[in-house]
Amino acid sequence: MPAAPAHKLLLVDDHAIVRQGLAALLARETDFTVVAEAGTYEEGFAALAQHNPDCVILDLSLRDRSGLDWIRAARADGITAKILVLSMHDEITFAPKALQAGAQGYVMKDQAEETLVAALRHVLAGQTHVSPAVQPLLVDPPPAEEKATRGIESLTAREAEILYAIGGGLTTREIAEQFNLSGRTVDVHRANIKRKLDCASLAEVLIKAADYKRTRDESLLPPQAHL
Asked: Are residues 161 and 192 in the same domain?
């Protein structure tokens, strides 16, 4: 009996070294084949149209736009390929958003080597894949993101990254260089953050950014570090 054809995969991540690592990891499996890679939002859509993959492995922080926007646009266009998000962003916050947008699974990048292959097989089999920590949130999921127009939860993945960078004291120029963005794009993100966090001034944005960074940093410390 001939073997079933390998599932076609598209990798969309703005870091070439990450795509190379994923391709090497997936090359070990006979039921997957990476048919294309893309580093930007638009390149991802071009590769999607050209290669018609069975599943897209997608980062949330693309260089030019949010991966959440990419998922929504793909679904609005009637794209039926499975989408598995692979991200460095906190799964408790962003996994429900990704699934609401139309993804079928969410894997943290630091767990990719252990869980990515199994997650892919679950998603391609028509199942939803998230970690046990996220599963309770899907029983009674939070309101759709478009309804959450204010607060930290309403920020896109890129806006959250930039808020964290602002909290670290980075200037617009430094943020632009870090994320390969134009200064104008960073200013647009700053304005969106100011609006979503209900800040009356840029000084208030700085205060909330510093608090956000401190909270994020503390969440990464081992328990004894808080004693």
From this structure: yes
Instruction: Please state the domain count of the chain.
Output: 2
Structure tokens at 211: 């608090």
Q: For residue range 89-143, what is the model confidence (pLDDT) as tens digits? A: 888 888 999 999 999 999 999 889 999 999 999 999 999 999 888 887 775 444 4
Phi-psi region of 97 (alpha: psi -120 to 50; beta: other; left: phi over 0): alpha
Tell which residue, 90, 178, 204, has the closest CA to residue 190: 204
* Residue ending a domain, choose from 139, 159, 191: 139
Residues 63-92: pLDDT tens digits? 778 899 999 999 988 899 999 999 988 888
Give the per-residue pLDDT at 148.
43
Find the domain containing 158 and state its range: 149-226
Q: Do 113 and 17 share a structural domain?
A: yes
Give the integer Cα–Cα distance in Å for 124 and 14.
24
- Residue 197: give its domain's CATH number: 1.10.10.10
Cβ distance 61 to 126 under 8 Å?
Answer: no
pLDDT of residue 139: 55
Kindly state whether residue 20 falls inside one of the protein's structural domains.
yes
